[in-house]
Every structure is written in C-alpha cells, then in structure tokens.
Backbone:
C-alpha cells in the first residue's frame, strides 16, 4: 500500500506525522461559587459558638470554610439579614374571607351548576324532538301562561 492516497490528497504515511501532539483529553472543571443556605449558615454559627478555644479551626477544616465566612455570617446574623433569608411561603398572601366573598363564591358555584343543568335539559329536549320526528308524532306547542 505504499504510495496510497487518501481522498484529501495526503498520503497515509505522512498523515500521522503532520498531525502534531494529541490534545489533552482531561476536561478542566470550571470552578463554581459555593452557595450556602441561611439554615446552614446558622447551624455552623451555632456550632462555632459552642466550640472551645482552638476547636473552631477544626470545625472550619471539617466544613471546608474560611474564618472570613464566620465573620461575615456573624455580621449578617447581628444585622438580622440571615433571618430574612429563611424560606417563606410562596405566592400571594391569603386574603381574609369576607362574608360577601363567601356569598359570591357560593352564588358562582350555584350559577355554574344551573348552567350545566340547563345544557342537559336542552340536550334532552333536542333528542325528544328528533325522536318525535322519527316516529311521526307531532308535538303541541307549549302553552303560554300557566301550568294547565
């Protein structure tokens, strides 16, 4: 196969020589900033407050933190900003139910129920009309006035 050529026009013997060094297959991980929840911060601060002198370093090493984290978190705790970070119930605030609101909701439910009954009654009447036409029965027009 000496002198064999590829479709690119480069001979197979010289193809590997010009490629250069192979790229490094290791993917370098992009560093991401760590985020700590308010609950975690308060837990670490409580444990740090319970530590005896010299034990705080061990706590920081165990948690993978720096002393600057503790000082910043202590300032936040004193300012009350850590309490503001606690999870809260999401969504709109529930409005107090008023008697008018309850009455309106009940009337809307009743209105919807009556609409459904009306649709059902109209469907039944349509079916009755079609059955009477098929059977050749003539329907008398409805009486105007009373229930006689």
Residues:
């Amino acid at each position: 196969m000496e002198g064999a050529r590829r479709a690119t026009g480069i001979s197979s013997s010289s193809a590997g020589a010009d490629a250069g060094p192979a790229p490094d297959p290791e993917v370098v991980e992009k560093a991401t900033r760590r985020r700590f929840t308010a609950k975690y911060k308060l837990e670490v601060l409580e444990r740090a407050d319970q530590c005896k002198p010299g034990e705080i370093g061990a706590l920081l090493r165990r948690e993978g933190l720096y002393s600057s984290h503790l000082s910043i978190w202590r300032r936040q705790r004193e300012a009350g900003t850590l309490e503001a970070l606690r999870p809260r119930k999401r969504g709109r605030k529930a409005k107090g139910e008023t008697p008018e609101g309850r009455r309106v909701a009940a009337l809307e439910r009743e209105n919807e129920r009556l609409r459904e009954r009306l649709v059902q009654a109209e469907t039944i009447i349509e079916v009755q009309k079609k059955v009477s036409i098929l059977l050749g029965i003539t329907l008398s027009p409805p009486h105007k006035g009373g229930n006689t």
User: Anything to note?
Assistant: The longest helix spans residues 99-135. Helices lie at 12-15, 38-50, 56-63, 67-79, 81-84, 99-135. Residues 76 and 110 are 54 Å apart (CA to CA). Residues 101-141 form one domain.
